Q: What sequence folds into this?
């Protein structure tokens, strides 16, 4: 995988895996920084070109089949998140717990530290 594409993927996955980042960055508690669910998803799937290549079961962007399968499941999970609900409710939702778990698992399968993960239900 090209290094810039890999960095987009890792950056998006880390944000999707990290409950504390979601609670602080997405809610505007970090001065002069902004982020949101949609941006993290776009960084992970669009900016890395991953969304166009998930059909390759033999290794998306040089990733192994186990990682590819996890990323496909993660894409399904992010599609299940109701972005129309209150931000705090969305962050604490069971759907986001699944997103955090799958994003952390994808990072682990890539041998990349998630830098903090969800401890929720």
A:
């Amino acid at each position: 995988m090209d290094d810039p594409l890999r960095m987009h993927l890792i950056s998006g996955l880390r944000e999707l895996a990290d409950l504390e980042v979601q609670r602080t960055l997405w809610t505007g508690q970090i001065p002069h920084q902004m982020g949101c669910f949609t941006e993290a998803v776009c960084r992970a799937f669009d900016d890395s070109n991953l969304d166009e290549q998930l059909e390759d079961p033999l290794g998306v962007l040089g990733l192994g089949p186990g990682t590819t399968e996890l990323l496909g499941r993660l894409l399904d999970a992010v599609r299940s998140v109701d972005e129309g609900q209150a931000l705090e409710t969305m962050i604490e939702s069971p759907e986001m717990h699944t997103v955090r778990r799958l994003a952390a698992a994808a990072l682990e399968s890539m041998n990349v530290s998630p830098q903090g993960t969800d401890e929720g239900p």
Notes: The chain has seven helices and no strands. The CA atoms of residues 21 and 83 lie 17 Å apart. The radius of gyration is 14 Å.
